[in-house]
Amino acid sequence: MPDPGRDICYHCGLTFAPVGGLRQDDKIFCCQGCLGAFRLIHGLGLADYYDRRDQGVSGLLVDETPDAEVYDHPEFEQEMVREVAGGLKEACLLLEGIHCAACVWLNEQILRRVPGVVEATVNFADFRATVRWDPQQTSLARLIQSLRRVGYRAHPYDPKRVEQVHRQRDRELLVRLGVAGFGAANIMFIAVALYAGTFQGMETHYRTFFHWVSLVIACPVVFYSGSVFFHGAWRGIRAGRLTMDASIALGMTVTFAASVVATLGGPGQVYFDSVTIFVFVLLLGRYLESAARGKAAGAAERLTRFQPDTAQVVRDGVEQRLPLREVRVDDEVVVRPGERIAVDGWVIHGTTSVDESMLTGEANPVLKIPGSAVVGGSLNVDGALHVRVRRVGGETTLARILAAVTAAQGGRGVVHGLADRVAAWFVGVVVLLAVVTFGVWWQWNPAQALPNAVALLIITCPCALGLATPAAMLVACGNAARSGILVRDPASLERLSRVERVVLDKTGVVTEGMPYLVRTLPAVDQGIDHRALLTRAAAVERYSEHPLGRAVVRAFAEQQWGLLPVAERVVNQPGLGLSARVGGEETRVGRPEFVLDRAPGSALPPVPVLEETGQPLTWIACAVAGTFWGWLGFVDRIKTDAPMTVARLKDWGLTVSLLSGDRPETVAWTAERIGADAAIGGVLPEGKSQVIRALKGEGVRVAMVGDGLNDAPALALADVSMAVERAADLSVETSDVVLLNPGLGSVAFVYALSRATMRVIRQNLFFSLAYNALTIPLAMAGLVSPIVAAIAMPVSSLVVVANALRLRRMSSIP
């Protein structure tokens, strides 16, 4: 039992630095990463736990390691488990004891075999398991117990704990590596003497003495440094699976046992030098692989540093600094110059410049004035702000990016599924081939039977095959995140690389999405003037998320006419407009046929034919109680990089179409300016879906980029869906990729990234398959020694990871 003074968590074994000395009956320390659930055993709720922790207490004491059932406590579930669609529950677990890709695969298989588990994935980057289950069939406690039974530690995921876990794991690996290196170096000196004695003569008692010294030195190398391989093999066997560790452990055991028999006077030779060298080389490979994996996973880890832990909140006229978890929607938050904004919201007082490079990748600060939206994690540069909270916790933009990046890094594609199926039977086949190799060589040259069989066990490695896809996906998703592109579904990168047509929405995608109201044509024959028309339209459109609606409200605010009338019973008809009761009268704003409640094609007021500097205007109508009140005309500037982006996509052989509910003349004019191949205008949301469905019916693979609520059905139908920065929430939820940069160039970049990612994956798969296809015959033929095998095996994994890291160099459109 650990001494409390050593500051070692009894439950997880991590060292930590307690502050304050919160104790209970002078029992053993427990780190804050255990999340206070253990305090429930003593009747201390999570709220009290967090209050004490936030006051500076990071060490807690419990009198025993709690049973896994404590994780099913309702108060704990409220903090760490979330409900998802279909009545399912989801939680993230931090796994300990994982050393390689084969361990990741094994943990996924263990979790998936638990009845009631719908989905289980383990993030290759930080060993975070995301599990989704049916609460009627299983629970979080049972999931944790299933992993504990085979020797893996599982804790509820705490982002602040990940770095400590990784640092402690690497430190432990370095100690094992040091012991193996010390032992191997000394045994090699002895081996030199033994080899020299073979040619120049050495008395038997000296040879026996050197064998015993080598045995003593080899024991800590095999049983301490090499224990990670034995533990990994045993976990796999207990789970009913053969992993890469099983073949390594078998090779070590056979080699060491044969050497011990020879030392005790039996037949054969000693291989203490070989077994210690390949333990050292294997551990070195794992350490280098861990370092490379850390580089590949750096994007998500860097994003966590942008999230403040506290916020300055104004309540009842008093400013107070509160933990972020206590901030609520509609709170007022004060952000001083040089501080990071802690929440998503909009500015209510103050003017400043905000650095949003962590979100969009754009280096230039963005001007923020009252009414401007701000996102959590961005840096307030030069002015004080008062922000009204819109989103907190897991709903903030930064939290959603982190969740999506993590899900993407741990996701699976079609190619990855194939690699998993191959790895599942790989080790069994290798062990069988090793037995065959030993038997054949025993008949021909017994002295080479054992070394050749061991070399085969060591050199063949399913890890390179298992890493082929996740390493590339991990780096690609991290690179995309740094460039302001959020890949929500990693499999979409596979699909995007095969796309043949890109369909672009117009407003907010090709254009800036900030239309300006430039003309109002009130129905003067009805006694309606400019002020009455704009006021009534703005009263309804204030509830719209459509760019045209926001432009109407913005134009009203610029007039400084005071407060808007109250609108009641607001109804949004996607693709048509909004209706509401204002002053007791039904008011409609949107398409003319909707505004006047007439069928398309029936007699309607003629749409004005006016242009603004050669650009056709976009018009919407307003009617009150069925009486036409007038027209409102808008212009929206085309994004400066739109023509170049379309040209890039066409150079890569893609067909580009412009699809919009705007007037066909306006859509055609915009398509001509950007160089699109086709323009389809005047379509309702159902019409957009029909266009996508028709293209797919022709066998065309389609990617669609949209931003509005009316785009959501079409986005859901597309092979790959992308939503832009200011997209409606439903559009974001139905999209595979979210483009956070305001420019259209992100579309070309993510397409280029998808092609490069699939090229790297194919290269990795080819290398890993070719490596095993080449090394297996060489090892069986006796052309590879165990030491060379021990060097080649980790190098194969490092080559795969290094090849994937090349994707980090893609920082702009090629």
In terms of per-residue confidence, which ranges show pLDDT below 50 for 5 or more consecutive residues? Answer: 1-66, 411-417
What gap, in angstroms, lies between the N and C termini? 59 Å
Strand order of the largest sheet: 17-31-30-29-18-27-28
User: What is the CA-atom radius of gyration, in angstroms?
Assistant: 32 Å
Helix share bin: 40-55%
Q: What's the main sheet like?
A: 7 strands, mixed
Count the E strands.
31
Describe the 3D structure:
The protein is of the alpha+beta class and 814 residues long. Helix content is 48%, strand content 19%. It is built from 27 helices and 31 strands. Strands 17-31-30-29-18-27-28 form a seven-stranded mixed sheet, sandwiched between helices. Helix 14 (446-459) runs antiparallel to helix 26 (745-780). It is elongated. The chain starts with 27 loop residues before the first strand and ends in a 9-residue tail after the last helix. Mean pLDDT is 77; it is low at 1-66 and 411-417.
How is this fold's topology laid out?
Blueprint: E1 28-31, H1 46-54, E2 59-62, H2 74-80, E3 82-84, E4 88-96, H3 101-112, E5 117-122, E6 128-133, H4 140-149, E7 153-156, H5 159-200, H6 204-225, H7 227-238, H8 244-263, H9 272-296, H10 298-304, E8 310-315, E9 318-323, E10 332-335, E11 344-349, E12 352-355, H11 357-360, E13 366-368, E14 373-374, E15 379-380, E16 385-391, H12 397-409, H13 414-444, H14 446-459, H15 462-482, E17 485-487, H16 491-496, E18 501-505, H17 506-510, E19 516-522, H18 530-541, H19 547-559, E20 567-573, E21 577-582, E22 585-590, H20 592-595, E23 611-612, E24 615-616, E25 618-624, E26 627-635, H21 642-651, E27 655-659, H22 664-674, E28 678-680, H23 685-697, E29 702-706, H24 712-717, E30 720-724, H25 729-733, E31 737-739, H26 745-780, H27 786-805
Parallel strand pairs: 18-27, 18-29, 27-28, 29-30, 30-31
Antiparallel strand pairs: 1-2, 3-4, 4-6, 4-7, 5-6, 8-9, 8-10, 10-16, 11-14, 11-16, 12-13, 12-15, 17-31, 19-26, 20-21, 21-22, 22-25, 23-24, 25-26
